[in-house]
């Protein structure tokens, strides 16, 4: 056991038997930095816990805990943070991996700049590990820069095409987490990283970005919108309201928060409408369309886009690919 690690890598694991070993071993291979890896199994029904026990038996840097009931990634990460002892906390998803030099590089950036939060670009990989290219593609993120709360909000509009910062996995100074008392929101099953960082930035934390791709992000098949459920988007809306009430925001920041809240309501409307159609509740669908004109316009545009994409796909299958 390392007495004072530089970095505590926290991992929330659920049904991760097929990939958790790769994630943990990639963190264990970190060079030029003292680490511990805190993995919390979120009551997985598969062999995740057995695999983790085998890994921990061979390396004292691995700390394990297991929740008695499935509680979501936020609860698992909060438990991991509580068990961690490092100067910095680094988030690693159970199906992702990191490069051996990543943590040392991010710690150096944090120490040199005094930043509370450091993020880097990610290398997208397929589920089979094939490199797909950098996650952030715009010129704005080809160079190192500070990320303000305004930038964080601007590049985190749900389902908006283009770069999205909320997927980046932060290295966070432990004293900042402790001082600001900003744990993960346990009501959220996704977007939990966005709100953690947003709360830290709104409370005065400094965040910096470096363009190296040291984090390998596994791109799963399927559209996020197809996986969203009404209770998840309702949790987003509640978290957004709580964020707006918790902080004294500038006019520019509040304008951005209001724009993001409108976008969240649009997505919530679309997800609720989709659910109503799938469950054949046509009356509920009609009420939704009548209740919010802006949300309904967004929903109908989304439906039209999906329908057009399916028609194009069927046409391609029927006629064959273009020469």
Characterise this structure:
It contains twelve helices and ten strands. The N and C termini lie far apart (61 Å). The relative contact order is 0.11. It has helices at residues 20-28, 48-57, 73-83, 102-113, 149-154, 174-180, 192-202, 224-227, 230-246, 251-278, 282-291, 293-319; strands at residues 7-13, 35-41, 62-66, 88-91, 97-98, 117-125, 131-134, 145-146, 171-173, 207-218. The longest helix has 28 residues, at 251-278. Strands 1, 2, 3, 4, 5, 6, 7, 8, 9 and 10 form a ten-stranded mixed beta sheet that branches. Helix content is 47%, strand content 17%. Mean pLDDT is 91; it is low at 222-226. It is α/β, with parallel strands linked by helices and 323 residues long. The protein has two domains: 7-221, Spore Coat Polysaccharide Biosynthesis Protein SpsA, Chain A (Alpha-Beta Complex); 225-319. The chain is globular.
List the SSEs and their pairings.
Blueprint: E1 7-13, H1 20-28, E2 35-41, H2 48-57, E3 62-66, H3 73-83, E4 88-91, E5 97-98, H4 102-113, E6 117-125, E7 131-134, E8 145-146, H5 149-154, E9 171-173, H6 174-180, H7 192-202, E10 207-218, H8 224-227, H9 230-246, H10 251-278, H11 282-291, H12 293-319
Parallel strand pairs: 1-2, 1-4, 2-3, 6-10
Antiparallel strand pairs: 4-9, 5-10, 6-7, 6-9, 8-10
Identify the notable features of this structure and list them briefly:
single chain; 323 residues; alpha/beta; Spore Coat Polysaccharide Biosynthesis Protein SpsA, Chain A; 2 domains; 10-stranded mixed sheet; 12 helices; globular
């Amino acid at each position: 056991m390392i007495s004072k690690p530089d970095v505590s890598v926290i991992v929330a694991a659920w049904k991760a038997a097929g990939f958790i070993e790769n994630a943990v071993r990639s963190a264990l291979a970190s060079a030029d930095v003292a680490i511990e890896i805190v993995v919390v199994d979120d009551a997985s029904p598969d062999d995740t816990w057995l695999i983790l026990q085998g890994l921990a038996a061979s390396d004292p840097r691995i700390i394990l805990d297991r929740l008695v009931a499935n509680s979501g990634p936020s609860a698992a990460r909060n438990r991991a943070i509580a068990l961690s002892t490092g100067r910095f906390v680094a988030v690693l998803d159970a199906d992702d991996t990191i490069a051996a030099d990543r943590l040392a590089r991010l710690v150096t950036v944090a120490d040199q700049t005094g930043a509370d939060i450091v993020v880097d670009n990610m290398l997208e990989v397929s589920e089979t590990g094939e490199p797909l290219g950098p996650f952030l593609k715009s010129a704005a993120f080809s160079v190192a820069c500070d990320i303000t709360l305004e930038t964080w909000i601007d590049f985190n509009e749900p389902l908006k095409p283009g770069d999205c910062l909320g997927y980046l996995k932060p290295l966070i100074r432990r004293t900042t987490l402790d001082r600001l008392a900003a744990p993960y929101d346990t009501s959220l099953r996704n977007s939990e990283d966005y709100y953690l960082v947003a709360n830290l930035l709104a409370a005065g934390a400094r965040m910096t970005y470096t363009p190296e791709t040291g984090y390998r992000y596994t791109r799963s098949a399927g559209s996020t919108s197809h996986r969203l459920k009404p209770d998840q988007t309702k949790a987003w809306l509640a978290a957004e309201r709580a964020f707006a009430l918790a902080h004294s925001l500038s006019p520019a920041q509040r304008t951005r928060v209001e724009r993001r809240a409108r976008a969240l309501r649009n997505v919530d409307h679309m997800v609720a409408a989709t659910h109503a159609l799938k469950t054949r509740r046509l009356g509920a669908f009609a009420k939704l369309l009548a209740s919010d004109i802006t949300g309904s316009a967004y929903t109908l545009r989304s439906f039209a886009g999906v329908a057009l994409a399916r028609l194009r796909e069927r046409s391609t299958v029927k006629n064959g690919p273009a020469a």
